[in-house]
Amino acid sequence: MFHIEEELKKLPSKPGVYLMHDEKDNIIYVGKAISLKNRVRQYFQSSRNKGAKIEQMVTHIRRFEYIVTDSELEALVLECNLIKEHRPKYNTMLMDDKGYPFIKVTVNEAYPRVMLARTMQKDKAKYFGPYTSAGAVKDTIELIRKIYNIRNCNRNLPRDIGKERPCLNYHIKQCKAPCQGYISEQEYRKSIDKVIRFLNGHYDEVLKELEEKMQEASAHMEFERAIEYRELLGSVKRIAEKQKITDSRGEDRDILAVAKDAEDAVVQVFFIRGGRLIGRDHFFLRNASDSTKGELLSSFIKQFYAGSPFIPGEIMLHEELEEQELLEEWLSKRREHRVHIRVPKKGEKEKLVELARKNATLVLNTDKERLKREEGRTIGAVKELESLLGLNNLVRMEAYDISNTSGFASVGSMVVYEKGKPKRNDYRKFKIKSVSGPDDYASMEEVLTRRFSHGIEELQDGKEVGSFTVFPDLILMDGGKGQVNIALSVLKKLNLQIPVCGMVKDDNHRTRGLYYNNEEIPIDRTSEGFKLITRIQDEAHRFAIEFHRKLRSQGQVHSVLDDIPGVGPTRRKALMKHFVNIDEIKNATLDELKELPSMNEKSAIEVYKYFH
Q1: To 10 degrees, what angle do helices 72-86 and 293-306 make?
Q2: Cα separation of 406 and 558, whole Å?
Q3: 311 and 425 assigned to the same domain
């Protein structure tokens, strides 16, 4: 039995992190302290004005635990990691989990490429961004390739020069075919230098060059080429207009401002890169009612920059923070360069911060009703599932599906939903390696084993956030008892305890209920919970089918007959010519197979054994 009063006396006067648990032993709050003894005791002192949210939280605390650290900075890092992992009910939480794309120039290659990147890695490439719109990034990359004729293939150059014919881009004059040696490495590098100047915002050079080419083509009566240059010129001008100059020194900074009312809060972020405003975004915060604007900004900074691949050298706010120096130290350590948090009082910087604050207020006022409707479809639907299944703190759900054609080229899909929304960056695809033929159960067993084994390995290797390190709160299987049992057997082998729920179909292949804890649970088909389940199910199926089609279009799918010993191209062709399709071969008798001129007895037996 945990006696709170007795345990409070044992608390050390050292820095650390504390975790509050409820009656079901769920973690409902995570905090850090310079002195654990002083901070944790404050929650249980009746004389203190704690605010409605904390007062309510304290009534649910049944026990607490703590972790002592060597410094307040270590406590801050641990607090960020624990909040991200457990997403406690009473912590102020980001409601949006957004990832921002970069433009990557592979300057470390002999013939560099320009591409979209979702993460910023230490690979000696040059990164620009992050940008707030993936669509804008794709448009910019396409424009760069058209203007500067940069390759977009994955060939290893110069090793593979001359090994294959030039692609279509060469023939439509959008690549100068370095793969054929038609352009030297030095000349190609000059084009890359121009690309880098373009991405740094120096547009005058390319505008002048395109204007001259357009006039020259027009003078030579080459009107189609002149129109092409005119369209490119217009595209560059549109990009240039979006890049509002904000700082002649060309620095990277983020501008943060918060707006709040009695219930909700919104943080507006302006992204300035190289002295130019490249985009802005807003983030909703929950459990914000009792927090000051300074506390909300502190919570946002911890959660947002804990998962951000890029941290600017300066962050500008409109509110002073209590732990400002500590946050600067933490951000500087993550960035590996000095980071300054500043609150400008006058001049252009103060005007930008005020503009961000006004935008935050506008978003809060105009989006509140839309957000509540969206919450019904997402968070509200998740709450319905929690109630239906008897679960708590259901945040991350993973669903799996298998796709194949007549039992060959089987692939698996994993889709992820967090707080009722798809988290596409965490989707994963699997090529089935160990299963021959149409065995969905064995294929699913392989997919689940690989997914969770990878996760365990990454955690053992000390990865904070890897491809598979975050485990789901619920696994959804596209089927009933059989699929659920497959998943449970995999989890048992790996010593994992994760709830598994099956989606039971009716005769028309529509979900009629859920299979959970060895019983079928009916579900209201008009409810938001049912609609969410259907969306997840459809998304897992779509993702698997899409991957399978992609492999087939790339010619990576081969005939199932290729996997049968003794069946080469000649026998495969003879079988398909005689039997028309795989199903007919599958249903053929051994004598029928032996009758084919190209088949001997041994190969006929191998074919028969494979399908039977």
Answers
A1: 80
A2: 11
A3: no
Please list, in sequence order, all residues whose beta carbon lies within 8 angstroms of the beta carbon of residue 358, skipping any fewer than 6 positions away.
none
Dist. CA 118–CA 123, nearest whole Å: 14
Taking 3-state DSSP, the helix, strand and coil percentages for the chain, each rounded to the nearest 5, stand at 45, 20, 35
pTM: 0.50
Q: Strand pairing of 421-422 and 511-516? A: unpaired
Identify the three-state secondary structure at position 590: helix
Task: Give just the sign of the alpha carbon dihedral 333, 334, 339, 345.
Answer: negative
Q: Which 3 state secondary structure label does DSSP give 338?
A: coil
Q: Taking a C-beta distance cutoff of 8 angstroms, is the pair 475, 487 a contact? A: yes
H/E element, 599: none
Q: Is 172 exposed, middle or buried (0-12, 13-18, 19+ CB in 10 A)?
A: exposed
Please tell me the total count of domains within the chain.
5
Residue 113 half-sphere exposure toward CB, CA atoms < 13 A: 12
CA–CA distance, 91 with 57 (Å, rounded to integer) = 10
Do 346 and 481 share a domain, yes or no? no
Closest by CA to 361, choosing from 282, 257, 259, is 259
* Residue-wise pLDDT tens digits, 242-291: 554 444 455 788 999 999 887 778 899 988 887 777 778 888 887 777 88
Q: For residue 61, report the phi and psi dihedrals to the nearest 5 degrees.
A: -75, 125
87 shares a domain with 111: no
pLDDT computed for residue 246 by the predictor: 47
Per the omega criterion (within 30 degrees of 0), is the bond before 130 cis? yes
CA distances from 409 to 134, 520, 526, 563 (A): 31, 33, 37, 11
Residue 217 lies in a domain: no
CB atoms within 10 A of CB 24: 10
Q: Residue 7, Cβ neighbours under 10 Å: how many?
A: 14
**E strand residue ranges, 251-370:** 253-260, 265-273, 276-286, 314-316, 340-342
Spatial contact of 420 and 570, defined as CB atoms under 8 Å apart: no
Alpha carbon distance 586, 595 (integer Å): 15
Residue 294 domain boundaries: 253-367
Query: Which parts of the chain have pLDDT scores under 50?
Result: 244-248, 407, 555-558
User: What's the pLDDT at 244?
Assistant: 46
In angstroms, rounded to a whole number, what is the distance separating the alpha carbons of residues 103 and 273? 13
